[in-house]
Amino acid sequence: MSDWRYRLKDDPYSSHAIILARLGEGRGRCALDVGAADGFLAERLTACGWRVTAVEGDQELAAQARSKCAEVVVADLEQPIPSLPGPFDAVIFGDVLEHLSDPLSVLRAIAAHAAPRGIVIVSVPNVAHLWVRLSLLLGRFAYQDRGILDRSHLRFFTRRTFRALLAEAHLSVLELVATPVPLPLVVPPRWHGRWLGLAHSLSATAARYWQAGLGYQFVAVCQPIAPAGAALSRPAARADNGAPHPAGQPSEKAR
Predict the structure, then answer these.
(1) Engineered SS bond to 177: which of 196, 219, 231, 253, CB 3.0-4.6 Å?
(2) Distance in angstroms (rounded) separating the CA atoms of residues 162 and 88
(3) Residue 96's domain is classified under what CATH number?
(4) In this structure, what are the phi and psi dihedrals at residue 117, rounded to the nearest 5 degrees?
């Protein structure tokens, strides 16, 4: 696939880079890549030592993913979720929920397959980004081929509504990171170089300090929690497969 949406974003400030950094080395642990497309992220996780199960609804993309991970489950996320070979030490929803009509139900159903000490990582675009706010002031809300207003997006999130969604899905936020506008994708290659790198670094710093307005995407690192009055009933994680820990310094601890 040549579609930019099905490529790994190597930008060091991208959601993919953050996901990979927080997961770190797999050491044989199990991960579930939800909405895996052709397996571009699953392939990198596999190279890092994770045993990856990919979930993808598109038959053609699923076929491409089979050579990049341990197992592929072909499933339409808008339909009842089939049996999954969990529990998983990590469950990843990378740029998936905004494409669903009922993201909460899907998040709840699949995150339940995380091991009790596992983590769930979710990334979504920020519809309250300053650019969208200014566009609305001018009376514009135009769908595009990519980005925050991608025409395939069915649901939109702000920082507040994203955190509310995670809470409703019984996920405790350990860390919430905001990514900057992906300048390497937006700016034509002929303008790439030192100055673009500096501008991108400054943009990343600004997004970290004003997540709600300058964050292009949000990446939440979560752990499952038991609903009030209930206990987690998932099988205990294997003794030699401890929960993954965030790698490196977090951009901002969730408050």
Answers:
(1) 219
(2) 23
(3) 3.40.50.150
(4) -105, 15
